[in-house]
Amino acid sequence: xxxxxxxxxxxxxxxxxxxxxxxxxxxxxxxxxxxxxxxxxxxxxxxxxxxxxxxxxxxxxxxxxxxxxxxxxxxxxxxxxxxxxxxxxxxxxxxxxxxxxxxxxxxxxxxxxxxxxxxxxxxxxxxxxxxxxxxxxxxxxxxxxxxxxxxxxxxxxxxxxxxxxxxxxxxxxxxxxxxxxxxxxxxxxxxxxxxxxxxxxxxxxxxxxxxxxxxxxxxxxxxxxxxxxxxxxxxxxxxxxxxxxxxxxxxxxxxxxxxxxxxxxxxxxxxxxxxxxxxxxxxxxxxxxxxxxxxxxxxxxxxxxxxxxxxxxxxxxxxxxxxxxxxxxxxxxxxxxxxxxxxxxxxxxxxxxxxxxxxxxxxxxxxxxxxxxxxxxxxxxxxxxxxxxxxxxxxxxxxxxxxxxxxxxxxxxxxxxxxxxxxxxxxxxxxxxxxxxxxxxxxxxxxxxxxxxxxxxx
Length: 458
Hints:
Elements lengths: L2 H35 L3 H29 L1 H20 L4 H29 L4 H29 L5 H20 L19 H20 L5 H24 L13 H31 L4 H7 L5 H8 L1 H8 L1 H19 L8 H27 L7 H32 L4 H8 L1 H24 L1
Helix pairs in contact: 1-2, 1-4, 1-5, 1-6, 1-9, 2-3, 2-4, 2-7, 2-15, 3-4, 3-6, 4-5, 4-15, 5-10, 5-11, 5-14, 7-8, 7-15, 9-13, 9-14, 9-15, 9-16, 9-17, 11-14, 12-13, 13-14, 13-17, 15-16
């Protein structure tokens, strides 16, 4: 891999890294944003959830648009929109302005990420070269989550608005490099046939509304009247049913329902959702514990979480070798089990814990991303026809983001409920760890089924 192909991979990895950094930075900046804008815990989680819902809700439309309109066009336009709204978010003076900017940035990422993934899967020949490119791409994207925790702490020391402005600078550089490096459709080495048809906008709006109602129901469950929570949950179920009906009748559906019967891909989506749910819930409660309960500043918090960045080194170098030796699902199983170990290690947390007592938990979470994120990405795209690569990438990232939003909302709901009942702060943290632990257990079960299925195929 050299020359133009290497340059293209660098640009696409840069976009994946940027997206991961952008999500993670806000986890560290949340207490500073709360202090400046006066947000409650329930409102605070929407700073992250607004982005995640825009991202996860429109990801399927983004993946389909890449197949319909051209991967290069969708990637470049969405990267430009990402630049604009990230900058506007840094200028926000009211909470609603901040949330609108985050939601719009999430929608831009929803078009950018599946387009970038499908450029790789159609631009590199299927086999060891494509697998290596995907593992490097996914590994660097996962590293973005970890490095973003550190970068977020450093930037927040200069003001939380810099977590908006810094991505603008990086995005502009990536856009300048992408214009000459991303191949045009006629120059793509393995671009596949262009899919013709219309984007299913109605399906995208309905499924996004369904996810919004579900996440709101989870978040409201701790402090709203039961009738409100159950009404939102029922609305979510009805909207999902409407989405299925729309997809069955649409000439060019957002998701062909038959595609969801591909078990290897379905396992990858479920594993991705569980990994993201555990990570986002754990990050949220750990940051609040360190900064608001123990009085650490953002820089000390980011340095404490620095060990999570181990996947930035190991994922591109070690994971491809392990996958070649043991296979996708055994490596994924180790990663998802490591996430469960991380949350269990943090369960005895006490107010007088030293960093040495916390660090094994953070190290285990870094190893979880090292071993799980890349193989899940490969499993989601392996064996999928070129014309469906955008769809599969969209489903994968939708699973990541909806899992993250669900884990975050459930953790926030548990924290709010525990705080309202007068529980000691450190006990609140322990109780909220139930959400990441359940997510990790679900992920382990999914990975075990993948291991069993892969052995049967052999």
